[in-house]
Structure formats: C-alpha cells, structure tokens
Amino acid sequence: FEFALVEFCLVQNEGPSSLERVKRGWVWNQFFVVEEYTGTEPLYVGKIHTDSDEGEGNIKYTISGEGAGSIFIIDELTGDIHATERLDREEKAFYTLRAQARDRHSNDPLEPESEFVIKVQDINDSEPKFLEGPYIGSVAELSPIGTSVMKVTASDADDPTYGSSARVVYSVLDGEKFFTVDKHTGIIMTAVADLDRETQDRYELVVKATDMAGQMGGLSGSTTVTIVITDVNDNPPRFPQKMYQFSVSEGAAVGTPVGRVIATDADMGENTDMSYLIKDGGELFKVTTDVETQEAVVSIKKPLDFESKRTHNVVVEAVNKHVDPRFVDLGSFRDQTIVRVSVLDIDEPPIFQPAEGAIMEVQEDAKVGALVGIVTARDPDVKNKPVRFSIDRTTDQEMIFHIDPDSGAITLGKILDRETAGWHNITVKAVEADNHTMVSHSAVSIRILDVNDNPPELATPYEASICEDAKPGQLIHTISVVDRDEPQSGHRFYFTLAPEASSNRHFTLWDVKDILLSECVF
Fold first, then answer.
1. Hey, what domains does the chain have and what are their CATH numbers?
2. pLDDT digit string, tens, across residues 433-466
3. N- to C-terminal Cα separation, the chain
4. Which terminus in the chain has less CB density within 10 A, N or C?
C-alpha cells in the first residue's frame, strides 16, 4: 500500500509566457508495525520519500515526535524507518511523528514538515480476564431450568476493531451438569430443576472465556463462581420419634410442664417456624411453643388422678407456619407424634364424703352417749389404708362430742341445751393409720333440735293497781308471756287463774280461745 503526500509548486513551462501548477511532494508507504516483534534485527516499518529526490544523495531525511530516535530510527539517505524496540499495542496503539526533507549541503528544508502515524498492529496476545471477581451469586432451590443466576464478564485487551482477537465466548468448565452459561452474554442459568439446598447448599463453577470467538488458537481465561442455593419451604416438620414417654406426679399443679418434644425441619430461617397443637388428649393437657427453641412444651391443664387413670396418650401435631403454595403438592406440611404420660402415684390424705362437710341433727334431750351421726372418709390410694378419726378439740373445748376413731361415729359426751346453743360446729380430722402426715379435715355442723322442756314465763314482773270506784268489766292489766322453747308450729298458750285465786269473785281473766296469744287481759 502506498500513498503520496503531494505538494504543489510553480514551474516555468516552455512556450508562451504563462505559469502552470505542477505536483511535487512526499511519497511513502502507509505505516503499520506488528506488535510483540521478537526478531534480533530492527523491524522495518516503511519508507518516506519526496518526489524531488532524484537519487543523487543530496537530500537528508529526518523524523521527530513520539519515539523518534529511540523507538524509531530513520536512514537519512534512503528514508527507511525501522523500529528498534518490541511494541505492545495494549500499552500504546499508535505513534504520531513528523517527517522533514532537507538539502544535505545547505540544510534548508525542501518540503514542508509533514505529520504521519505509525499504527501498532494487533496480534492476539492478550487472554480474556475476569476483572470483577470473586463472583458470588445465588438462586432459590427447585428453580425451573433456565432460571438466570448472575452474569459474568471477561475483558480482552486486544483490538476489538481488528479481527476476532477480542471476540469472547463463554463456557462452563466445571459444574456444567447443574449450570450453563450463555456463550455470548455470560449469563449463568440453571441446567436442572431439582437443585436441593438440603442436599447441597453451594456450587463452585469454573467459567472459561475464550477469544477469537472460540476458534482454534484462541486464548482463554477462567474464573471461579460460587453459587449459593437459597432455601424455600419445601420440607415439612418431622418428629424424630413416633412416641415419647414422660411421667409426672398426680400431685403436680396445673401448669406444670410434663415434657418437651421437637419436630425438625430441614429448611432454614423462617421456613422452620412451626406451631404445635394437641389433636387428641387435650382435656387434661395443653401444648405451647417455645419461640426460642421451637420445642413443644406439654403441660398439665387439669389435675391428674392416678387412681382414675394411670396413662394418657396425647397426640401432638407440628404444623409449618409459612407454607409456600408452590410446594403444597409435595405433601402435607405437618406431622404427628404420641406423647405418653404416665401418672405417678403419691400418698394422698383421706377424702371425706361428702367433701364439702356434713350437717347432723340431734334432739336436745338426747342422752349422753347417744349417736349424733357418722362421718365417712377413705384413703384414695390403691392400698386403701385404714383411716382414723378424731375431733379437733380447739373446736370442741368442752368435749360435748366424742368420735369413734375407727367408725367415725359421733356421740354425745354431755347433756345438750338448745336454749344455750342451738348449733355446734366442730372439725373432724381423718388420718392414715400408719402415716399421720396424711391428714384431712372436714367441718361438721350439728343442729340441736328443740323439745318442749321449758314452761311459759311472764315476759316481765307485773304489778297492777285499780281505783276503788272501778266499774265492773274495766280492763285492769294485760299480761304477756314467753317460752324459751321453739316449736315448729309456734306457741299456743292457755291462761287461767291460779287455784288460790279462782274463788276470788272480784276479778276475772279473759282468755280468747283458738287464737294464738302471747297476752291475756284482766
């Protein structure tokens, strides 16, 4: 390839007096120099030449500018330019210089100085490089085939405008079973639909970038890509055992924890959150969830009784809180286990029947030793030990009542008087015969039934007076009486004058028949 830098000058033609413009100027090759030249001799670049050079050696060629005299040298007689150093296009792609032709004897310029460029021609000497690593991406497990994960990009320092040296294509060297990469864009995608975080939670891929569009002889570079598999809620809770066994004393208070069980979930984060509920056996037990440990805490809801039931089977169910509707077809996101609770027997105090206490009645004229009533208590334990009875003497300090220690029969110890005390409230104790620490108390209220053992009495002492001129039939006084007895149907009194006064003809007692009276009149 040649081109000419042409200069115009004026010359005198033969013939009529006139001036005619003719061409004169620079003539040289288009300058390219290949990079990375490894020869031992200076590399020929090209020649500069002016058409005024007739080959007589009268012209001297010089160059100036970038690299002149160091990187580039010129033969001042021939105008040949050589490169003396190994050039790298990736460091500098071209050099700008200026050419000058002078008269060798006078050193006067023969042509105007002219600028030219030496372009460093690219060779494929730079491999693609991944400059943005390390690469870490993520994708959810069970994602469909072709799901985009991330993009990687390799840079090639070669000339993108020249040949295919900088045309990069991508491929997966290691991990191609699970992931693919778009050869042109570098986008990494899933190659399978069954990525399972619980089986493998990360993959290390090796991605290669090759220049020359992947053709033979292209250079390549590689990088490692870490892909983290993120969790989805695709696993249900599972109890490690189908049955757990615990024991608790029958005397344990309501709210006492019986035991803890836990269901495991292969997922992670909030996908493992679960709640527990009782599907069977919730009458006597309840379950709560420990939010810190995700354990099910089984505790007592109502009092337990060894003698009534010794073993309880409680069905506990674990349920995922955050079920993903995309995976409901994988199965039920819940699981059940049986919590078997054995109730342990304890030595319990006797139980009175009725438990709320007893009310008894006795006639006030009953004799000492008469039976008032019988209290009943039994040992609720399986051994059903004998029970002994006694009266708490702080409630019967006068020892009005006695109790048979074996039968619980309460008898009179003293004569009763209803008018002195109509009720007696005592406390009866029942203890196990061989363990006096097992003691119970029951209140016994004894009502004293009235008998007519008290005569009527004047309500107050009476004293009457009358004038001597009182007329017959005149009211002198009204008399009132009382009776300390308490008949069920009320009192009925009959008034008469005492025998010693019945013959007195001056006074008369008026008694109204068939009327309940507490008074009579004179």
1. 30-121 (2.60.40.60), 129-230 (2.60.40.60), 243-344 (2.60.40.60), 351-449 (2.60.40.60)
2. 888 888 999 999 999 987 766 677 776 787 777 7
3. 172
4. N
Q: Which of 41, 43, 135 is nearest to 83 (CA)?
A: 43
User: Is the pLDDT assigned to residue 199 strictly greater than 90?
Assistant: yes
Dump pLDDT digits (tens) for 98-154: 999 999 989 999 888 889 999 988 788 788 999 987 899 999 999 999 999 999 999
In 322-468, which ranges are continuous DSSP H helix?
none
Q: Extract the tokens encoding 244.
A: 């757990």
User: Which residue in the block uniquely carries the two structure tokens 């995922």?
Assistant: 320
Instruction: Give SS3 for 212.
Output: helix
- Top pLDDT among 162 and 169 is at 169
Cis peptide upstream of residue 405 (ω within 30 degrees of 0): no
Residue type, 403: I
Which tokens in the block code for residue 286? 């309840």
Residue 22 scores a pLDDT above 90: no
| pLDDT of 92 strictly over 70 | yes
pLDDT of residue 502: 66
Q: DSSP per residue over 288-326, as a string?
A: EEETTTTEEEEEESS---TTT-SEEEEEEEEEESS--GG
Widest CA span of the chain, in angstroms? 212
How far apart (Å, rounded) are the C-alpha atoms in residues 27 and 50? Answer: 5
DSSP-derived 3-state class of residue 504: coil
Grouping H, G, I as helix, E, B as strand and the rest as coil, residue 198 is coil
For residue 117, which of 157, 164, 153, 81 has the smallest C-alpha distance? 81
SS (H, E, C) 43-98: EEEEEEEECCCCCCCCEEEEEEECCECCCEEECCCCCEEEECCCCCCCCCCEEEEE
Q: In the predicted model, what is the mean pLDDT of the chain? A: 85
Question: What is the tens place of the pLDDT at every residue in 12-21?
Answer: 333 333 334 3
Q: Work out the burial of residue 107: count CB atoms within 10 Å of its CB; fewer than 13 is exposed, 13-18 middle, 19 or more buried.
A: exposed
Q: Which residues pair with 65 in a beta bridge?
A: 97
